[in-house]
Structure formats: structure tokens, C-alpha cells
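Readers of this paper often ask what the protein records in our data store actually look like. An entry from our holdings is shown next, in its original layout:
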Amino acid sequence: MSVQSSQQSPGFVGYVVEVSSYTELRAHVYLQAPRLLRYGAIAHVQDHGSNRQYLALVVDVSERNPVPLVNQQAMQDLYESLLQQGATLQQIHQAIQQLLSPSQGLVRWTSVRELRLRVLGQVTFGKTSSGLQPRLTLPEEPPRPLSTVEEPPQGLLQQLLSRGIGPRGLELGELAYNPGVNVVIDPLRLNMHLAVLGQTGSGKSETVKRLAAEYAWRKEYIARRGGVIVFDVSGEYSGITYQPPGVVPLLDAVMNPASYTQLPAQWLRHAPKTILIPYDLSSISLYRQAEWRYASEIGLVVEDLRRRYGGYGVVGLLYARHGVYRIDGRNSIASISRGQAAALLASNALLIVAAPLPDSLGVGEMVELSPTKSEYYEVAVSDITDLLGVLDIGIVVSVSALAGVVSVAWRLQRQYGSRAVDQVATSLANAVKDMISNILRGVPPEQAIRSRIGGLLSGSFVNVRAWLNLLALPLIQERPDANLDLAGVQAALQRAYPFPGLTWMEYLPQSLKHAVQGYLSYGGGTAGAVARGIRRVERMVSPFLDVSQYRMLAERLVSGFSVVHLARPSRGEVSPHVARLLGELFSVASASYAGDHHTLLVVEEAHNLAPADSDTASKRALLRIAREGRKWGLSLVLVSQRPGFIDPGILSQASSLVALRITNPDDLSSLRRGVESATQEAVERLPDLDPGQAIVSGPAAPERRIPLLVHINMLRPLQARAP
């Protein structure tokens, strides 16, 4: 057999020898082709007779019987030399047989490599404003035998794998078998959601870091508004508490983009950057000193980040039970006003916000957080808050205000007797009227509250902030930057609420009287259970993180680069906080959507927030985003090492997939069932992947017909990448 490769194209390696079906081919490879002789490699097939070209996937490699490679010119020269020496034809025949004998070693014998190929599509070219651009289409007819098999031109692959995306494409890495060909995904198609799955040690977190960093670097090419939010369960993304040696935290690439990318990254340079540290307020003692100790823990984080990013303003903000604190270090803590807190939320500083549940919760959330098992609890909470005027479309605007009213009413009834419902309601309403009158005459609100409510309770403890929130409710709902001083409370009392022509100071005493009557009419046992339940929930919320400041915080997260840090110094049970935050993020995104808003929401350890075997508030919130988020520019990235533990209803919403090494049979089965773009062939390959290798598929990939085996580029500073 003779092969003259000099007459073929530079990438030539062999021929198609059989067309088994419309898409199945067999080819023989005669030359060295290390990039093609691998399962999953991509081959370029040229049918010179019909002038068509194709891309095909290598699905099997085998060895055929050895054949000699003979130089025809040398054979002719040998034949003529033997004739000139007088050799007979029989002698010449015997000499040639010896030359061809494998035992003589005089002729190079080689085995034929056979490839089984699956045609991915036919390469066609269309005119665009930038010239002819390739596309991969359904073949008009299959390639014929003797079509040449070649290594694919890098330029052709790169054009196909970045077609129509331009500078917004997120570069994950390179094709594993075609180094130099970048693999990009389209961020605009992430609104159909993405699953990043892989077992521990597969490179999953590094893949997510690359994805999130690319999204932030290229944000100005993606959408005018929106941001990136990462739920970090270990501190690996922020570098707080946990920072393995040699691993780059995502926050480093965000704070110093010029060290990691040559892109302008203009959005990232000017976007607000936030580290939100949720914590369970009920895990901290009721005493003010406990708050200061926790503020000192946050101060250590502030000091660490200032050392790492000295040229950037780093400020801490703590919402607690007794106040709001600005933190500039472990020994630099100061109480600040509501207006000062709002100014920090509006700033461009790297803001570390430690926040418990806000003072605004849904009725359903209050039921889940309450220990009471009373069947009347949910109805009672809804009725009382509705009558009181602090219920807004199922959301209790101020849990602390509700708790203040219920707590005082319950204590008064125990003083007056169980039948004194009207007396309690009238006494409390009259006390509120007197408070309002005193405040309008210039008495400081805190003094008026202690005087009138404290007088009713014979000097017992009064939660002043709760009653202050009730008096200033219209201002709290509308003005996150307003202080609850005398002028602010006076303005709130004179605001029309909830109906035109009726001010809040006129409406409040009436509504409070009706609310107390309705609450106490449930009877002693139920009223006591409701009071205890509301009181338990109140201990978990900060009365200083009111509805408008929480909305302002959510708007900051949605519009900038944010890490929700769930490791230390976060403490206690934070899943209710995550659920509430997800709900608020959805509300902000849907309320402000204008078609140019795209926010990437990355959820690490998604199986914890959306477990398959239990119903949780966080799972319900994620399911809502998974089903409806794309309409409002929310792109969900579900990250997990155990896809079998993720709720299948949520996992099925992820149309695109980045799958790294997975060996657990249950997880492989769940992946195949749960993700639409996970083919059986791709799933079977996952156990054999090396760390840092991933299979990418789905609509986020520019060319869905080409299965992508990618070597992920880990985050590294630019100088570290130099050869």
C-alpha cells in the first residue's frame, strides 16, 4: 500500500473507507495523528467529489491488520537493478517476498488505525457583514468513501465555537484535544439556567470562579444593568476564613481585574461590591455587649480585607438588635443613624454587611419560624397585621411593630383580666393618641413612648424601637435614608395613610384598637400562643433593618458584584435568611426590569438550599427563580457535587450543563434524568475525566452540535501565565 501525503492537505491523516449510515463512518488513518486518535476528538472530513466538508466526532478507535508502506520508486529501481544483473523473474519475485517479510525488517510495516466517526454536521458558509462565516448544518448527504479525514483547522473550529457572540462570550478554557481553540459560552443564554456539576476535587469551584469572573469582566458587553451574586458556603470565593494555598479567591480577580484580564472591565471597576454575611440574631445574647463582641469579629474581616485591598475603601456595617454599627476595624466600632446606614449602602465602598433577618417578613415565613403549633396562628397573624395596617400583599411590613403591640396587649390583659378585651384595646388606643399628641408638641418620640406605654405597664420594659417603627411606618416604607428623629416621626404621622384624606396619626389609633380587639377575641390560650410565636420571630429580626433599607440592600446586590458569605463569621441557622433574600432579589429584579437587566445568580452547594427530600423555604424561593427568573433577567447557576440530592424540579430547569468528573452511579443517573442536554454518551464519559476537564453542552454553547470537552482555565494572575 502506498501513501503520498505530500499531495494531500497539511492536516491529512487518512480516508473514509465505509459509510455505514447517514451519520456513521469508518475511516483508516495512515499517518501519525495524536489529536484524532482519541475518543471525543473532532475530525474534519472533505468530500472532494461533491466539494462538501463536514465535522465528525471520533466515537471509537481500533487497530487493523498491519500493512507495509512501500516506496514505489525505490521498488522500481530495485527491479531494474536485478534485471541488469541478469536475475530471472523467479529470482526477482523471491527477492521482493523477502523484502516484504516482517521477519526481515527491511520494509517498514505499520498497523492501520480505524476510526469510527459520527457526522456532527456539514460545514456551510454564509455572508455576513464581517465576511463569510461558517455554520454547522444538517448534511445534505453523507460524505462518500475516499473522502479525506483531516485534523480540523483551528480557525474553522474557533469561528464555529464563537459564532455570533463577539466580545461578550465567557471564555471557560480550551478544547482538550485542540489546544488554542477557546471555548466560550453565551451569557445571554444563561437565562435558561446552567448546572455546574462535579465531585470533590474535579475542579468544580475553579470552573465557577472562571465563569463568574468572566461574566463580571465582560459585563458592559452583556447588559447595561444587573450584576453577579455568588452564594459562598466555605469562603473559597471571598478568601475569608478559608483560602487554600495556591488557590486564587474570586474576590481577588474582582478587586484587581487588571492583574487577571486584559479586558477593560469598566463595569466591574465602578460597580458596588458587597460581602453579605447573614447571621442568626437569636444565636446572640440579648445584651448589647454581645453585639459589640460580634461587631469585633466583623472588624477582623474588615482589617483583613483592608490589608489585601489597601487602595480600596473597605467598611463594615452591622444590623443588630440594639442598633446599627459602622465597623472600621475590631476596635473601631460606632453606632450610626438610619440615614448614615443608607449612605453606606449607596456608596461604592467594598461593603461588608452583617445582617440577620429583616424586620419585614411574609406571613408564611413567620409561621415557619414560629414554634407554636396553634392552628389559628397564621390566621391570627394575618388578621392582626391587616387590621393594624402593617400588612402589604402578604408581607408584614414591621415584625417588631406587630410584636410590640401584641406583647403589650397580652401583658395588659393579664393585668386587667381575661374579659377586659375592650378595656385593653381602648387603653392602648388612648395611650397612642396621647403619644402622637405629645410628639406633635415637640416631645422626643422615645420619651413619649416610654412615658405612655411604660405607664400602662407600670414601668415594665418597653421595646421603644418597635413602637417607633410603628409610629414612623409610612416614612420607613418610603424613605430608606430618613432618620427617625422628631421631625421624621412628625412627618410620618401627618402622611396620608392608607387612604387619601386620612392621615396616619388619625388612622393608627383606630386600627390599633380594632387589631387588639381581634387579637384578644381568640381567647387566652390562643392569644398566648400567638404572642409567644410572634415574640420568638421578633428575636430573629433586626428592628433596624426595615423594609426600605432591606430593599436598598437587595438593589445594591442585584446591581453590583456580591458574595453572600455563609461561612464564619456567619453563625446560626441562616437558611431562612437565604430564602428571604432570594425572595427580595426576585422582587427587585422583576420590579426594575427594563429588558437590559441581566444578573448572574451562582448557588454553591445547591443540594443544601434545594434538597430533593424535603420542603424548605429556600427551595421554594429557588424554584420560583428557576421557573420565572428568566423573564426578569435572572440567570441561575446551580453548583453541586451531588446532583442526585438536588430537587429534580429545579435541576430540570437548567438547560445548559458544565459537567466535570462524577463517579457515583446514583448521581450519574440523576444527571441523565434531570438535565436535558446531558446525553447518555456524555454521562458515560464523566468518570474518566481528569481534574479540570469538563463536558459543556446546551443552548449556552454557541454550536450545540459540537460536544465540547474543555480544559478549564483556572484563575491566575496574568504574570503567572507567562511561559
Notes: The CA atoms of residues 230 and 602 lie 5 Å apart. The chain has a mean pLDDT of 90.
